[in-house]
Design brief:
The complex is a heterodimer of chains A (755) and B (366). Chain A has 19 helices and 30 strands. Chain A has 755 residues and is an alpha/beta fold. Chain A has four domains: 132 residues, Rossmann fold, CATH 3.40.50; 224 residues, FAD/NAD(P)-binding domain (3-Layer(bba) Sandwich), CATH 3.50.50; 152 residues, FAD/NAD(P)-binding domain (3-Layer(bba) Sandwich); 156 residues, Rossmann fold. Classes of the chains: A alpha/beta (755), B mainly alpha (366).
Chain lengths: 755, 366
Amino acid sequence: MDKKLGVYICSGCGIGESLDMEKLSKVATMGYKVPVCKTHPYLCGEEGLGIINSDGEAEGVNTIVIAACSSRVNHDIFAFDTNKIMERVNLREQVIWSQAVSEVLPPNNEDTQMMAEDYLRMGIVKAQKTELLVPYKPEGEISRIILVVGGGISGMTAAIEAGKAGRQVVLVEKEQTLGGFAGRLYKQFPKQSLYQSLQLPPHEILLKEIESNPNIKVYTSAKIKKIAGGPGLFDVTLEQEGKPSQDEAVQFRVGAIVLAAGFVPYDAAKLSHLGFGSSPNVITSVQMEDLAKKGKITRPSDGKEATNVAFIQCAGSRDPNHLPYCSTFCCSTSLKQAIYVREQNQDAEAYIFYKDMRTMGQYEDFYIRAQEDEGIFLTKGEVVGVETIAGNNLAVTVENTLLGENIRVEADLVVLATGIVPATAIEFITGEEPQPTTEECKVEETTAPKEVIIRSDILNLDYRQGPELPQLRYGFPDSHFICFPYETRRTGIYAAGCVRHPMDMSASMDDAVGAALKAIQCIELTNQGKAVHPRVGDESYPEFFMQRCTQCKRCTDECPFGAINEDEKFNPLPSLTRCRRCGTCLGACPERIISFKNYSIDIVSSMMKAIEVPEEDEEKPRILAFMCENDAIPALDMAGVNRLQITPYLRVIPVRCLGSMNLVWISDALSKGIDGILLIGCKHGDDYQCHFVKGSELANYRLSKVKETLDRLRLESERVKLVQLSINEYDLLPGIFKEFMETMEKIGPNPFKGF
Amino acid sequence: MNIKPDLKFVKQIISAGGCSLKKCYQCATCAVVCKLSPDNKPFPRKEMINAQWGLKDKLVSDPDIWLCHQCSDCTAYCPRGAKPGEVIGAIRKLTIAHYAFPEFLAMMVGQIKYLPLLIAFPVLVLLAVLAATGHLNIPQGEIVFGHFLPHTHIDAIFLPVAIFAALVFASGVIRFWRDLQTQCSGNCGQGGLIPSLISVIIEILTHSRFNKCEVNKGRSLAHMGVLYGFIGLAITTALAVFYLYILGQHSPYPQLSPLKIIGNISGIILLVGISLIVLNRFKVKVQASIGSYFDWLFIGVIYLVVLSGLLAEVTRLAGIALLAYPIYFIHLVSVFFLFFYAPYSKLAHMVYRTIALVYAKQKERE
């Protein structure tokens, strides 16, 4: 495409008063020989937009640089045809609002003007280098079918909801029947106002809906042997029990996957301290359901009716030696089972020993209802032992009770409320040592941390990084627990229900709806060649210049989403529908062969080159900040909105993610005479906030290698610094820059200035 | 310690007025808002869970339930509507029943369905005495209650009634005191019995403890009215004995005699006091509760005693024999009722609270 550049500078919102507009225009017209350069006092108005549009028609301007406000605002107004390239230069939030209104810096301040001019140069250069985006079209036909893995309540709901939305669904369940744990329940605790009476579990109703929906195809007694490909192109191979031969393997293509593999109860064999195994009359809550469903709650030892039943909550939960987390529904489950006991016999007694009674939300009403039953006795306390006494009875010893003393209560049946373990946390393939998750802490910072992928034999992905989903914590395959539910670290695979985090049945059903919607979105966006979360709608994608690839495997290793497989010669094989467009591969590649049409090593390097670095004797240092577009850049905008004053010596280059920071940019900047470089990205570590999960962590690890570069250039390592910032910490930004400037003053100017 | 929850006792507390008992989830707001609760092992939180678990032995011998003057702050502030004040009230009622002998009488006093039977007993006894002595008619001439039922007859009826009540109380007190001793093990204070008793009596007379319930200064005043009304009437009774047996003077006495003055004033104080109690109960009924049948039975009996007493006097002075004698009869029935059922009714709190306070004082539990 022959580019014709048009630069449009807005003088509204105070820009005109604070900057010398004429000088600014000259940067474009004189410096870059831009054929069309106009200023307007109200560019986002009808007239301003009219000028841009008519220039497009009359003059053939097809590459537009808007120098006005932040690209985070008015993006709906400055939206042009897809055959035009558009670049935004932020003169408002990042320049005048954080500079010119200062008492120290009057309008038309020289430093403010230099800043604005630099940003305009950078914008023009970027526009010049950017190529028109062409949405990615994969080879092969994109499927719109949704695969749901797991036929419990979550999976059934996901299938029904996707089916109702007119999608074809394939539901795969490893057991002979659908229903999952709901199928084992006698009753479920109340799910509707007034939260008083127990109700039947929902699986039979769901089953009828599935049977009557022609969009849903069900495979029971089936497991997934292999999934290859990526969103839109997942090729699934099923293995059905009783049909072992290879020829009969079912194969089909799906567009997206809902993982609803559910949970397994925590292994009670590990709870011998609570009497499990030493007496048949110590059972788990799942076994209690089995007893209740059979008709009468009796003691396993002698079949006598159980009339004194003790429930031990958090059996192996919220316990650092077992499951550190809360499984959320066990409290309500035990209250429900205590009601079973009471409904069976009005003289029966049920005791519940809890750590904390956790009946969230409206289940509090159910808690009250259970509590009000005079035959249900509750106390907080620590169960320290369960022993067998005469007549196969059990004595439960509880310490630190609310009764003000340690107590011993006799029971004829003890029920352990065991927690849940996500199906993804169960290692199936033995022989290989599973890596403990704590291993990561011991790894030195100079090596990129390896992901732990537990071979849980659920998805069997044909991905280079491993066959299952990477985990966030405790084996849950979530990738962003709070901000982005359902998202996993494998694009197009969305987790729902207890496999994602512990939840009760109604929460699972809600969850399934969300995950099904996510799957539908993914298919639609993939079909349009656009990125999914978090760069939803992005039409750019990475391109690999394979001739120069050295098969170093960094991109395949470091991609947070496992988007890159490799061939037998270790050449990277990107599956672009899996790609989230974070640019981590671009940051990783030492050969710099990976680029986007609007984001590349060259584009960013050229932008840096566009910065005018004053001579040393001018005493105008320059610091450069690479800031993450997801959190740090919005924070910088907010700092501007709040008129926080920022050093005029700062220049900012937004990056897709700190993970896309290529080290060459650092050496480029330093050799150009930039005094110091800040990398400002999201928090990493256990409670990371990186939208691409690993980006800021990888940047941190790469930075450890920067020292080498600096040493080679004989520069101080303090010149490069990584800062972690949350989006809400915008108020810290002025201080961060000020402190860094002070460091620069201390170590003096970059000796490469002027070279 | 081995614990055996007692479902039956839980049900008893619930039917005795503690129906909200099981709502408690042990947040201890009640123990915090209570102005009377000691810092060490405060009430009523622990009483609530002991009650939920039906731990009868612990509850009946718990002195703390008597440290409460039921200001209902706990009930008003309870986030769950568990009404600790009401529950403790119910436990007090059951404690009275537990130490009363025979227990079935206490059970009858606690239930409205037995009320006609309970009233029938004094009515029949009095009617029987009247019939046996030929007084089953309205005497002619000047109204002198002694003509209707001579004082000898009255003494023959009421002395045994008082002795019966005293004996029942004594048996309860002995067992209660014995059980209280099991409450404290280890380091509790050990004050002297007599000094503790004296300071408790002063406390009761001044209502200094009751006054700590800041929200119900009004209730304290009302209760004081009832207490002093009763004390005044007790003095009147003592004077009557003195006039009759020492001075040999028979009733009716002149209106200006000290006995009449003290008696009338006491009666009016009692009437005002009990009326204030009723008013206060209506005032707090929204946030707390209006009280149980057990409470209202006692209030009703006091009303009956004081109103029938005053009306008998008024109708006597007005010379309306047709009214004066029947009202006097009602008065006698109500006094009989008050005394005979005292160990089983709310009036017993007078005894058990005093004992518990003495114990608490001894153990420096304040």
